[in-house]
Design goal:
Elements lengths: L7 E5 L3 H12 L3 E6 L11 E4 L1 H8 L11 E9 L5 E13 H11 L5 E3 L3 E7 L2 E6 L4 E4 L1 E4 L6 H6 L6 E13 L7 H4 L3 E4 L5 E7 L12 E9 L5 H5 L19 H14 L2 H9 L4 E9 L4 E2 L2 E3 L5 E2 L7 H16 L5 H26 L10 H10 L2 H7 L4 H4 L3
Parallel strand pairs: 1-2, 1-10, 2-6, 4-12, 10-17
Antiparallel strand pairs: 3-5, 4-5, 7-8, 8-9, 11-14, 11-15, 12-13, 13-14, 15-18, 16-17
Helix pairs in contact: 1-3, 1-9, 2-9, 7-8, 9-10
Bound molecules: flavin-adenine dinucleotide.
Length: 409
Amino acid sequence: MTRRRQPRAVIVGGSMAGLSAGLFLRQAGWSVDIFERTSERLSARGAGILAHTELRTLLTSLGIDTEVNFGVSIPTRVVLDASDTVIASRDMPQIATGWTRVHTLLADQFPEQHYHSGFDFQSCETLPDGISVRFADGRQEMADVLIGADGFRSSVRRCLFPNVGPAYSGYVAWRGILPEALVDAAPFVRSSLFTFNLPPGEHMVGYPVAGAGEDFAVGRRSYNFVWYRPADSLTELPQLLTDAQGHRHELSIPPNVIAPSVVSEMRDHANKVLAPWFKHVVARTPHPFLQPIYDLAVPEMASGRVALVGDAAFVVRPHVGAGVLKAAADGQALAAHLAGGDDVLAALQRFSVERHRVGTKMIERARHLGSYLRRSFDNDTQRGEAARVGAPEAVLRETARLDFLYATS
Ligand SMILES: Cc1cc2nc3c(=O)[nH]c(=O)nc-3n(C[C@H](O)[C@H](O)[C@H](O)COP(=O)(O)OP(=O)(O)OC[C@H]3O[C@@H](n4cnc5c(N)ncnc54)[C@H](O)[C@@H]3O)c2cc1C
């Protein structure tokens, strides 16, 4: 009896999408190697993230315990007005965890000997019996499937769809995380609220996450904020992305080189428009960082022997709070379609159809939720829509909810 050869996947990118796809494919009996460009441990990518039940279920199916020390439970959402008065509130239990926390849980599950750091994907070539993948140092790998999990600037995507790239949304997110000990013991922190403040055309949200060493004790946790602000693509964005040395960065700027003048302007603006609570938080945040917000959608999530997962395929504005879930669920679906079957190409096409539908729904939903973060409107219909979406009750009800994914109409 001839034994079936174990199929092999090469994954480019060892972050959320790459690790999830790798773990699920291993469960499905595949041999998997991940090639990650960055040599150091990926930890400083993000700050807090919201963990939907779906994300926890998915992690549990990988054997990861999300019951203990996973995140901070936040029972209630509130909106503050310009003087810190709560003008709307809603009970809506959720868990806030950290990007690093989830990444570490995934990375700890993946066998070290199959995770190769310091490899920069260069090109791929489809051969009659597989796909050949080449890295910048000349290393070459053969696989049955190549998975592009290399984020929003994906080089793998560029091979498939050279004309698809991130489209700037018109606004940026200032983010920050600081030890709770640095903020005055305000009621919003002590009672673990998910706190919004909505200055005209802007959107601030803050919530507690675990502190250093996964400490969940009040006073030793961290506090995380995301502040969305419009920034004109031609005038303001280039300035924000220009570092102190005058070098203009493309698409995003590393936190450690943001020009001090840009940070000062942001802090001044915080003092002018934010509620006192958030003025306080921003003033005490040692290293705020900036992320322009983009939309990105591929026409298909697979072509030939190549599949795209996570932000390489769809970048969804963060209002849905599900980038990590989407990345992990892409990996799960990919493995489910590839499990057992011999027809890799057909399996990749089925994966593409299934997950493209989800990515499309998410991107549309997130665009809708971010529609009021603009300075000007083309007509009254747009203005009316923005007023509805940006109303405090609507923001509380709609932000980071996934119900829309299950709606039938
Ligand atoms: C402001 C903001 C707030 C957010 N909040 C949330 C939230 O609350 N909840 C949530 O779920 N998500 C949130 N997200 C989104 C989430 O962070 C991303 O969706 C998620 O990290 C995407 O994971 P990924 O693995 O697809 O891509 P990435 O994390 O970008 O990883 C791509 C990897 O590929 C590697 N790579 C790139 N090029 C190459 C190459 N040529 N060769 C080899 N390796 C390469 C990179 O080094 C990187 O490690 C937020 C995003 C933003 C901007």
